[in-house]
Structure prediction request, 174 residues.
Amino acid sequence: MPSNVEIKAKVSDPAQFAQTAAELSQSEGAIIRQHDTFFSCGQGRLKLRDFMNGSGQLIFYERPDTDGPKLSRYSISPTSDPTSLKAVLSDALGVKGEVKKERRLFLIGQTRVHLDTVEGLGHYMELEVVMRPEQTVDEGQQVAEGLMEQLRVSRDSLVTGAYVDLLPKGAKET
Prediction:
């Protein structure tokens, strides 16, 4: 199963964060709209990501709910019909919650840097250090911590869990 080392943090100044990420990536980043539906499952998390353009991805992942850099193992399957797949999975498993966001994606070395505007939550950033087969988790964590420093992400701003876990109870159902 592929893996990455991730962090998630609240962003107080999205314009400054975007400027720094653009300088480090030498790009303005790509804008991606996403509607994630999380389904009930026995272990890990299962979500359907709808890109709002007729395409999507079914994503299963497992990672600890801790702040700071952590290992995430995942499997992804593309879909060309996220609407009907959502209906089937909703009937079979039940919906845990939904998250709508606009993501600005920057690529810095082996790391995907996200600046997310999450409906109902505000501005967040994520780092996903895509692990190479020969890399250790410690090496991935060092990459993440180095980028945290370059992007001026403080440890106080780190959050645990997924966006769906941060939403108020009533806002999870749409």
